[in-house]
Amino acid sequence: MEYDVIIIGSGPGGYTGAIRCAQLGLKTAIIEKYATLGGTCLNVGCIPSKALLDSSEHFYNAAHTFAEHGIKLTDLQVDLDQMIKRKQEVVDVTTKGISFLMKKNKIDTFYGVGSFVDPHSIKIAKSDGSEETIKGKNIVIATGSKPMSFPSMPIDKKRVITSTEALKLQEIPKHLVVIGAGVIGAELGSVYARLGSKVSFVEFADSMIPTMDKTLGKELQKVVKKLGADFYFSHKVTKVENTGDEVVVSIDKPKGRGDEPEQITLTADYCLVSVGRRAYTDGLNLEAAGLTADDRGRIDVDNHLRTSVPHIYALGDVIRGAMLAHKAEEEGTFIAETIVGQKPHIHYKLIPGVVYTWPEVASVGYTEEEVKQENIPYKVGSFPFKALGRARASMDIDGLVKVLAHKETDEILGVHMIGARAADMIAEAVTAMEFRASAEDVSRMSHAHPTYTEAFKEACLAATDNRAINM
């Protein structure tokens, strides 16, 4: 069988690219190694984690804020089995939706492990032991990523777990150690902290979510600390050991902190290892296609997302850049349109990053650390959620919006938010920055009152000659 495009991997980048290829009239096939479509994001990543995050937030509010709203409850309990069941139902409906979209767009779907036979041929090894080979004029590698680990923290999927196992625990840990306070660690750590677990974050960097603007990490730490979490920043994990009913985590303190011992031992029920992800290109037999991967499994591509073999493309987590589902989606569309001769565009600096804790964290553009490093003249405007009428009405007063604007032109360079609905609010900042808006442009746009988005307008006013109205 011959196709115009074969896509290996059905995550957000793969299935979005497949649909766009089909819309453009290309005969398209998609290959998925697992029994369901959707990749990491829909099955064990974005979607199930958000389901648990929402469930845990409902429980936390019922326990801590409902009474103030005039809602009285007694004998409040967590039914973890039902939480996990609901999470899985959300996943099942979503993945079935992707299957429907493949049929609707007449995309042939193959289940099995795809690997190169030659630059145009892909062998599909199926679960029943049979094999099939298909050919494509163009091939897209969209195989995503998998959790990383280190020799000092061997994953056993029982007590020492990854995000995948954390999404289906059968008990609420009394004590959960989270190695890595980045996006995944922060999200899943906050889930169990809200359900009553003692959570200890161990992070090699000096703050939470260290790749984002430092202000956001500091603000998020304040919020998570209210849940009773402990933090060990600038600490290195030297050993993780499953002793049967417990996990013992040994960590080194940074030198020069008084007379305290240089090593600390934490004992917990579970240890979640969230130290990043690695491109999943194992088993693709890249050599048969004339390709190689680096030591993290990534494949090099040019500005058109072509590999060194011009008809083979790669996207998402298997190439450079942030490992974000929406980045992969944009790249899937980009490749489809490139194949048919269009001139698509992706502004990588304007792909937003989001952390789905509560309050949510969202960011786009330059961080303050980056503008300083690049010697860009800038000014800052910020506005706290506690000054918003809408936030006070909902009791969501934690957080702020921070806007960086060019000191001379007033063009918005970066927007960083932590607060209620920041994940949705960041889209306004992306829109403004795509059109190279100034802080004054946004400050002169009417924002409905009372809303959370007024915080963005007020931050822009603050960046424009310190003109914030409600602060």
TrEMBL record:
Give the record's cofactor note, including how many are bound. Answer: Binds 1 FAD per subunit.
Q: Which domain of life is it from?
A: Bacteria
* Positions of disulphide bridges: C41-C46
Specify the Pyridine nucleotide-disulphide oxidoreductase dimerisation domain's residue ranges.
Answer: 351-459
- EC id: 1.8.1.4
Q: What keywords is this UniProt entry annotated with?
A: Disulfide bond, FAD, Flavoprotein, NAD, Nucleotide-binding, Oxidoreductase, Redox-active center
Q: Where along this sequence does the record place binding of NAD(+)?
A: G180, A181, G182, V183, I184, G185, A186, E187, E203, G276
Cofactor needs: FAD
- Coiled coil stretches, renumbered: none
- Residues covered by the FAD/NAD(P)-binding domain: 3-332
Q: Which InterPro entries match?
A: Class-I_Pyr_Nuc-Dis_Oxidored (IPR050151), FAD/NAD-bd_sf (IPR036188), FAD/NAD-binding_dom (IPR023753), FAD/NAD-linked_Rdtase_dimer_sf (IPR016156), Lipoamide_DH (IPR006258), Pyr_nuc-diS_OxRdtase (IPR001100), Pyr_nucl-diS_OxRdtase_dimer (IPR004099), Pyr_OxRdtase_I_AS (IPR012999)
What does UniProt list as catalytic? H449 (proton acceptor)
Sorted alphabetically, the Gene Ontology cellular component annotations on this record are: cytoplasm
Q: Where does FAD bind?
A: K50, G114, T143, G144, S145, D317, M323, L324, A325, H326
Under catalytic activity, the entry for this protein gives: N(6)-[(R)-dihydrolipoyl]-L-lysyl-[protein] + NAD(+) = N(6)-[(R)-lipoyl]-L-lysyl-[protein] + NADH + H(+)
Fill in the misc note: The active site is a redox-active disulfide bond.
Fetch the PANTHER family from UniProt: DIHYDROLIPOYL DEHYDROGENASE, MITOCHONDRIAL, DISULFIDE OXIDOREDUCTASE
Family recorded in the similarity comment: Belongs to the class-I pyridine nucleotide-disulfide oxidoreductase family.
What name is this protein filed under?
A: Dihydrolipoyl dehydrogenase
Q: Which organism is it from?
A: Spirosoma agri
Q: Taxonomic lineage per UniProt?
A: Bacteria, Pseudomonadati, Bacteroidota, Cytophagia, Cytophagales
